[in-house]
């Protein structure tokens, strides 16, 4: 990949994906967009290790402890505060911050609008501090108030990877914000991203999938974010093609829906389902 960039500006497409760690392995939830990106600063964290012998510098190494910095947004969404900062929503819908909340780690995904390569970035193991609270009274001019939080990006617990990036001509780029890209991740594609179900000629819906990983398999199938029960699903012999029983679709009202396929490895796939008379 040739590096055409001279400058970078225009932070955009900021997403977070919750990290779950189990038996020394990190798994990532589906990325969630945070609108209103303003500024991201990240400074390298680490130290230089020197050992002197034979009357000179015998050994020298720089350690990589990730990055420290801050993320500034127009507004930190309440959903982020619940998912990552451990806030709670009470029965009246109020968002409550409490002292014993457990802050979670997340992967941070983003890109720069002024990047000539349209490069997309991911930091795999980010720990946030609580966002600052600021405000000011009205004056003759309106100054928008933003929210910032300090963040620390460390190496992932399993791979020790700190960050990754993909340019627009690389495999996995188009689905970068649908699933967290991991090293050597398989790329999953669909033959058609639109399917139609007609009640006049009702039939099962088959979604034809191709994966660069021959051992990959479908994990979940969702309709508008809700799991489709397994009794209505048939998985092909390749483990990735999926057929949805017409009996399930018949019960849906006419309209447009989003079918999401999640896989054991690699990006998820979204297919538009139109249900018509």
Word description of this protein:
With 277 residues, the protein is mainly β. The chain folds into two domains: 142 residues; 89 residues, Immunoglobulin-like (Sandwich). The strands form six sheets. Strands 1, 2, 3, 4, 7, 10, 11, 12 and 13 form a nine-stranded antiparallel β-sheet that branches. The N and C termini lie far apart (49 Å). The mean pLDDT is 88.
Describe the structure concisely for a colleague.
This protein is mainly beta and 277 residues long. 4% of the residues lie in helices and 44% in strands. The N and C termini lie far apart (49 Å).
Distinctive features:
mainly beta; Immunoglobulin-like; 2 domains; 9-stranded antiparallel β-sheet; 5-stranded mixed β-sheet; 2 helices; 44% strand
Order of helices and strands: EEEEEEEHEEEEEEEEEEEEEEHEE
**Average of pLDDT:** 88
What portion of the residues fall into strands of 2 or more residues? Answer: 35-45%
Domain module count: 2
User: Which structural class fits the helix and strand makeup?
Assistant: mainly beta
Please tell me what the overall shape is.
globular
In this structure, how is the largest beta sheet organized? 9 strands, antiparallel
Count of beta strands:
23
| Euclidean distance between termini CA atoms | 49 Å
What is the number of helical segments per DSSP (H or I, 4+ residues)?
2
Tell me roughly what share of residues is in helical segments: under 10%
Low-pLDDT residue intervals, each spanning 5 or more residues: none
| Rg calc | 23 Å
